[in-house]
């Protein structure tokens, strides 16, 4: 494509845990169209994929995630009771040893990650220091990963304050921002009807199995106390209620930030069927990301070619 007088392109990759592998599909679709962003910003899993991209490690990352199995994901879980269920040390050390770690200023193009200051609730932009340290802070989902200590402050997942970092892209000089929102279709995901018993035997065990077990224990205790719901609707499992509540907060924060800081091009992969920790389903997420990017590609090419006279 003609790059003369082309706007400075920023790519804002949003947070969404295992759904973040969709970012790989988005980037592949952009590459196929000859579009290379001038700068990349990421929140949470978006920071991880974005760092791999600007660090020249996307091919290796894609090969690795497509080969992930449930057992591999479980092997990275170094359980902790201090600040979160998972310390995250095993995962970060894996990336340090298998992917090139370097200073952010040494990357091929500008990169920034978003985290949240746990004490003050403020947004923190990470644009210096080691790449893996910035990624570790940005992915520290509260309750799941332990917070990351940086310059005397405890940092957690950037999705709490800025799920899709359009504002950081603008601040770093982007004229046109391509943003990827992974949370657009999450509302009610955990409250949808579940498959029957026969199909669940063949499915990969997921969080819903744990939710059923917890709910069964609660119902057994309620029966001992003479409490039951036989005369009324049965409430959803506790973990389903918790997950849906988190999704509601995430979606509303995302919508609020994008309303005040809109992207020029917004991609919304359909990922509601992917669970929070289903990192082993990378192929499905990558395919969804590619479809979302291809769906808005005509609009993007029109903007870049100056068809509307903006550039």
Low-confidence stretches: 194-214, 307-311
Total count of helical runs of at least 4 residues? 11
What portion of the residues fall into strands of 2 or more residues?
Answer: 5-15%
Cα-atom Rg, whole angstroms? 20 Å
Structural class by helix and strand composition:
alpha/beta
How are helices and strands ordered from N to C?
EHEHHHEHEEHEEEHEHHHEH
Shape, principal axes of CA atoms: globular
Oligomeric description of these chains: single chain
State the total count of DSSP E strands: 10
Terminus-to-terminus distance: 15 Å
The helix content, as a percent range, equals 40-55%
Main beta sheet: 8 strands, mixed
The average pLDDT is 81
What does this structure look like?
With 311 residues, this protein is an alpha/beta fold. α1 packs parallel to α11 (282-304) and α2 runs antiparallel to α6. The chain contains eleven helices and ten strands. Strands 1, 2, 4, 5, 7, 8, 9 and 10 form an eight-stranded mixed sheet that branches. A hairpin with a 2-residue loop joins β7 and β8 (153-157). It has helices spanning 22-32, 45-54, 58-66, 70-75, 89-98, 131-138, 166-171, 197-202, 207-224, 238-260, 282-304; strands at residues 9-13, 39-43, 84-86, 111-117, 123-126, 143-145, 148-150, 153-157, 176-180, 265-267.
